[in-house]
Design a protein that fits this description.
Layout: H1 3-18, H2 31-35, H3 39-53, H4 68-84
C-alpha cells in the first residue's frame, strides 16, 4: 500500500470518527494537541488503525509519536512489515 493511500485513509478516519477539522491535519501538527484525545479516544484510535490496516498496535508505540507525520510513518512501516511477513 502506498504512503499516499495510507495518509488518505488515516485522514479520513480522523475527520469522520474523531471530528478533527481537515485543516488541522498537517504533517507537522502535534498528535496530542491536534487530536485532543482522552484515554477512550486512544482505544478507538487503536481499533481504527487495526481494522483499517490489519496489524496490532502496542500502546507504547504512541509514546514515540509526536507529530502527525510520525503517525503516518508508523502506520506505513507496520503495513510494510505486514506485507513482507
Amino acid at each position: 500500500m502506498e504512503q499516499a493511500t495510507i495518509i488518505s485513509i488515516i485522514n479520513e478516519f480522523l475527520i469522520e470518527d474523531f471530528e478533527v477539522p481537515a485543516a488541522d491535519i498537517t504533517p507537522e501538527a502535534t498528535i496530542k494537541e491536534t487530536l485532543d484525545l482522552d484515554s477512550l479516544d486512544y482505544v478507538d484510535l487503536v481499533v481504527s488503525i487495526e481494522s483499517n490496516f490489519g496489524f496490532k498496535v502496542k500502546p507504547e508505540d504512541f509514546q514515540r509519536m509526536i507529530t502527525i507525520q510520525d503517525f503516518y510513518n508508523y502506520v506505513s512501516t507496520k503495513v510494510e512489515e505486514k506485507t513482507l511477513a
